[in-house]
Amino acid sequence: MYDYKELWKIKIASALNAVLGEAGIDESVAAEQVIAETPPNPEMGDIGFPMFSYAKIMRKGPPQIAQIAASKLAQSPDSEKLGTVEAQGPYLNVRLNRACAAKAVLDEVFLKNNGDFSFARPGTLAGQKVMVEFSSPNTNKPLHLGHLRNDALGESVSRILAACGAQVRKVCIINDRGVHICKSMLAYKEQGQGKTPETEGIKSDRFVGDWYVNFSKALKTEVDELTANGMKKEDAEAQSPLMKKAQEMLRKWEAGDGETVELWKKMNGWAIEGMKKTYNRTGVTFDRFDFESENYMLGKDEVLKGLERGIFYRQEDGAIAVDLSAEKLDKKILLRSDGTSIYITQDFGTAIKRHNEWQFDRLIYVVGSEQQYHFKVLFILLDKLGYPWAKDLYHLSYGMVNLPEGKMKSREGTVVDADDLLDSLRDMALAEIREKEREEEVGNPVEVAEKIALGALHYFLLQPSPGKDMLFDPKESLSFNGNTGPYLQYMGARISSMLRKAGQNVSSAPGNADFSMLVTDPEWDLIKSLAAYPAAICESAANLDPSHLTGYLYELSKCFSRFYHECPILNCADPALSKARLELSRAVMLVLKDAFYLVCIPFLNVM
Q: Against a cut of 0.85, is the pTM above it?
């Protein structure tokens, strides 16, 4: 899209260099050094350029520099086409030529690109290979609300990075082994009586999760009895007959016991089958699934090599550890005294395997903020082991997500199942459609309600920056007014409806329009908002933060709402102006559709 900020940066750098040359000062200003800002008041202009940073080399005060530069720029032969410049204190404020800018911006959208928004993708990451790991579910329960935030963040970041030219590989490690997995296995083995998800009519991952809850409730009963007799809680949990049985089952699994392995395969199969259905429902995809059961032994050889090189040391009990006091961190065990590995051993083994198979330029781990220490240690260990790409690893930490009712707990069965939440949102949206008697207009009410639910959910989850904890309010997320996904979807549907009323196919190429007629404040604000789209993508990619894009979408929608109410479009008395406004509306629709994809919001032609 025509970038007037960059054009004016070049012009201002040229003007400043001319002044420096005339003064005999042997220094220069590069265009990329020129700072561009948006004035706090639109009446001050469209772009502001502060002169503070040039005072030292030009040996003048910023207001004087602004006056001299403005005089130089006024002599430019293309000043009328690009706009006017005025010195206001230490700032150069530029007012763009609205007619020329509107024509340039919108012509480039339609005539040159015909709705293809690949031109809006800043190719800042072209040629880079980026791996994004996210979701990381356990096979003892279905995906829940916390996973939904993780998935939305991982999927959106992956799409944004790909939009900026990166080659992205999305990976998911499934935690399918350990004593927590054996808990649901043990409960099913002792109480399942041959039941299956099919016989019970329950989604397969939910079926497995119910057995995990059953185990946890039975364990609590045993622990309560032991603590009532004077035993400490931690000792009671360790001495509980059920916990001992679960640990024995894990030992049998690691020893390859046939019956245990077959049960493990059956229940993991149920869990993963159900999870993949949820991924498909939410539009989340992966290029590769890794499994802890295949990777948990990775890293042991690396630990032993590190021991030989003196990077790690062996404790008196035989465990291998590393002293991280120089890094102001604690001691970390890497191999237990019995030689078994722990999570971090597995994680750096998996990272090495991944880099050997696909030499990424960057590996991003999308994992909750409670694991910040874990990843800090992981990255330090890989660096100590001599892997230069350790500096290319990044933990995209995100905050907790809870409901108004309070914190969720898997073992108590208070976790909000992802599918249950989506069903609830869909049913609420469906009730709204029926209340407004729009079943016939929307065509397939259930399908539309499902897409509204996804839009509400993903927008709400991506709206705050990743690091913030958040409270998810289902009713608030579904509001058709304010800063919500359905509000944005409604804007897209409104424009689609308007184009249909005008007798135009929404996907067809636009006809010629005189965009230079679009000079009123609402039209101008909307055009400037459209022109800011590539920068919003670039900012989201640079910060690995989709909230820049969600914020942009809300501002764009507000600008369109003002334009729609203040500028007649189909009812405009001037046919040429009506045409230009209609095509401006189409531009907004195309940007909405394109950006919706990047933040995982379904676009709706009708609502």
A: yes
